[in-house]
Amino acid sequence: DKGWEDLRDRVGVNGTTGQAQFPYLGANVTGSTLAPSTVVERDGVKIGYVGAVTETTPTLVSPSGVAGLNFSAPVAAADAEANHLKESGEADVVVALLHGGLDASAYQPTMENPGLHLAQVPGIDAMVMGHQHGVFPDRGANPGYKQPGVDNAAGTVNGVPAVMPSSSSTGWPSGVPVRPMVPLGKPSDDR
Questions:
Q1: Are strands 45-53 and 93-99 parallel, antiparallel or unpaired?
Q2: Among 166, 79, 83, residue whose Cα is nearest residue 129
Q3: For the chain, give me the number of helices (H) and strands (E)?
Q4: Omega into 143 within 30° of 0, i.e. cis?
């Protein structure tokens, strides 16, 4: 973590400058040039991607690296952006990209892992999570996520298709296709 300036200037956040070949998204980040969402059309379907990061980011990274940035509640910000994309007709479906995970605690706007609650937002059709370094869906004998609303067999959280890869390169959940992730980045060779 080298801070906002490194992300913006070297890595690039808009998908056209810097090293990143895709946009970084932050519906709940202000004080930056991050877009709240992006829309990609594939096979006539307008797919909206809404990004959100845990509001506790300033306590998880060097505070000087995010100086000038403000992080609001990710569920409220993603809800507002998903509604905007659908009501405006910009997106047919919305995928939430959450730097957060699953916590069964009662909802708090400042909770670090609000995925369980984000999946209850009516405008969210699918969800990709990270941050906890766990795997979801976990189809093993003793899955790591067992909260009410979590269905490891179906790969859903409160009925919303969801995935969370671990931090290792071998951590992509078995039985979960990579293909749904393709629309955000460059087309795959198998297209």
A1: parallel
A2: 166
A3: 4, 9
A4: no
